[in-house]
Amino acid sequence: MSRLIVISNRVNPPVEEGGGAVGGLAMALAAALREYSGVWFGWSGQTAEGYTGQIAIQRVGGVTVATVDLDEQDRQEYYNGYANKTLWPLFHYRIDLTAYERSFDEGYARVNRRFAETVRPLIEPDDFVWVHDYHLIPLARELRKLGMKNRIGFFLHIPWPARRLLTTLPKHRELVEALFAYDLVGFQTEDSLTAFEDYVVKEAGGAVGAEGAAEAFGLRTRIGAFPIGLDADHFARAAQSPEGRAQFARMQESLAGRQMMVGVDRLDYSKGLEERFLAYEQFLIDNPDEREKVFLLQIATPSRDEVEAYQDIRARLDAVAGRINGAFATVDWVPIRYVNRTYRRDELAGIYRAARIGLVTPLRDGMNLVAKEYVAAQDPDDPGVLILSKFAGAAAQLPEALVVNPFSREDVSEAIRKGLAMSREERISRWTPLMHNVMTQDVAAWRDDFVAALRATERPAAPDPVNDQTPIASAS
User: Fold this and answer.
1) Contact 454, 128 (CB under 8 A)
2) Position 122 in a domain
3) Which residue, 210, 216, 213, 143, is CA-closest to 176?
4) By residue range, what is the domain housing residue 169?
5) What's the CA angle centered on 238, arms 236 and 239, to 5 degrees?
6) Is residue 466 part of a domain?
7) What pLDDT, in 10s, does the model give residues 241-275?
8) Angstrom distances, CA of residue 95 to CA of 90, 100, 167, 275, 304
9) Same structural domain for residues 198 and 317?
10) Pairing with 366, which of 161, 185, 329, 354 sits 20 to 30 Å away (CA)?
11) Measured between alpha carbons, how far is residue 417 from residues 21, 259, 283 in Å?
12) Residues annotated as part of the active site
């Protein structure tokens, strides 16, 4: 029987049933690998002196994982550099934060080549390979150079940028061409898929045919949109677990008769946290009678602390939250509870359930599973209201939410006012189809759709053998 080999930058499956990593990718891949035998390969998150390629294999959370350490130069150039200072801001439409350095490019190419050489012995001829996210775009090309004929699929978890934005990347054609070494390339949304098709046709001079057949650079691949889902049933149960109930009770006690809004995000400039705080401030200005009746709990988990842009956003959020609290707080009420720490998933489920409003307002996001988590955790008899950015991929699947423009303080402020005043009947009528989508378009449906599409691709579709070791996107 064919195995599924998952390859991603980091390997971080949940350690225990209720807790573990909060990240959507970790939860989704762990759920997939519990259904399909195979291996999850990637970076351990640790560094060592010199890259040895030594693989550590263990069983974690019901998943077989194989990890390797990177050396410090790899971490700085590949991870902190090209992945997080070049591709991440560019793909999230922050060209002002995008850095182009030759060393970043070289580290990105080097680590992808090392990953290919290290994982190759683990892969058997009948295995299907599923590569994840922007860190590893060139990986299939490197595996093809090693003679691999297996079906290889790629899934991008973040947005694909508009053509004119992508063309600001030095050697953008080489980056896109590397994707044609895959048999299947998947995106979160039709919007990202359309942007990729636009590049293929108008920039690369290629063509896109029926059923997602794409051709460019003398190569062919298949492309499609595969919106990622939540392990919804598991998350709904987490809200009813002893830990979830305990956290819910704790939050209920802390409400003191007030209504709570909640935001849960990684501390990242793409999440629109500063804009969210300012929109909430606008709400307090526009609705003085609502002061002391509501508060915002913002959970923002620190990440990528070594990248200057992340240090800057954390400092700005500290300042904005402090200013708003200083201006509006009373002796027994603080408008913003701002927390920088990680919570278990069952604890989060209890927090979501206690919140009248879930604020999910990223400036740009591939999907955003927090929106789906909030929906899954609600009490069917008294659900809360989801306020969702139109620029999150989830907005296309969850139109019954209050969909807003996160760049407009007035738009978000008005949605908060409407959400707090919404009747129980309307809340139920909106939540019911939201929950239906979350439960039916879940992680199992996403997994099955992608794997079925990958199995259906025709091999060989690999590029012609190449020996060129030119980095993907040098700064020249």
Assistant:
1) yes
2) yes
3) 216
4) 4-229+444-456
5) 70
6) no
7) 999 999 999 999 999 999 999 999 999 999 999 99
8) 5, 11, 11, 18, 18
9) no
10) 354
11) 33, 12, 7
12) 157, 365
